[in-house]
Design a protein that fits this description.
Elements lengths: L1 H79 L21 H12 L5 H8 L9 E5 L3 E2 L7 E2 L4 E7 L7 E6 L6 H11 L12 E7 L2 E7 L6
Antiparallel strand pairs: 1-4, 2-3, 4-5, 5-7, 6-7
């Protein structure tokens, strides 16, 4: 009887050990499964992150490409815009002396001939200007009272000539003077202008007073702006 009890006890112990061993094996497998599962989850997570990074990189590339295209378009537009640049070597145009009036036409004629002619021949040549429509004459003058300057005596020249119309009703009188020194020209012209009277002829009045010089020769005229035939 005791021997039977001992055998049963031993079998119980053996079965208990076997059951424990099986349970541990099952637990171990479960742990491995969990670990493997965890690894699978981590791998999936990494894959998702990689996909998101790739998508972000593609978006960044697209944005960068769009910005570069916009920048290129702006540069092309800027190149195509015309530049309003003034040439560096281009000098401003000088205003030409108007010869539209009788006085300015005679001044231009005087400047073209003064250096090669004496005062009387020069005065006679000025009377042939196409804008003069009257019969005129020229003669030499000396220092003193001259027509057109009232009671002021005109001095300071060594030669002089006057040219005028034969008819006194035309408000026209012109002079050509030669001075000793060209340095006195400006002062002499100022004297002529300050003493001249455009109504020296009581019946009519001159419209313009024009003066100029070439070297030591001086031109002065009071006249209408135009003369009709």
């Amino acid at each position: 009887m005791k021997k039977l009890l001992s055998i049963i006890l031993i079998l119980s112990l053996v079965l208990s050990f076997a059951a424990c061993s099986k349970k541990e094996t099952v637990d171990t497998k479960d742990e491995e499964t969990v670990e493997v599962g965890g690894k699978k989850d981590e791998t999936t997570k990494v894959d998702n992150e990689n996909e998101e990074n790739e998508e972000n990189e593609e978006v960044d590339k697209e944005n960068k490409t769009e910005k570069e295209e916009v920048k290129t378009e702006k540069e092309e537009v800027k190149k195509e815009e015309p530049k309003n640049e003034t040439p560096k070597n281009e000098s401003p145009k000088k205003e030409e002396v108007s010869s539209s009036t009788l006085g300015n036409a005679l001044l231009a004629d005087f400047k073209a001939k003064a250096s090669s002619m004496d005062v009387l021949p020069l005065a006679e040549a000025l009377l042939t200007n196409p804008q003069i429509k009257f019969m005129g004459g020229a003669m030499e003058v000396e220092e003193g009272l001259l027509s057109g300057f009232d009671n002021a005596e005109i001095t300071g020249f060594k030669k002089g000539a006057v040219f005028m119309p034969m008819i006194g009703s035309i408000p026209f009188i012109g002079y050509v003077f030669e001075l000793e020194n060209a340095s006195d020209v400006n002062t002499f012209i100022s004297t002529l202008k300050s003493n001249a009277n455009k109504r020296w002829n009581v019946c009519v009045e001159a419209e313009e007073m024009i003066a100029g010089s070439v070297g030591n020769k001086v031109f002065f005229v009071m006249c209408p702006k135009t003369i009709e035939e």
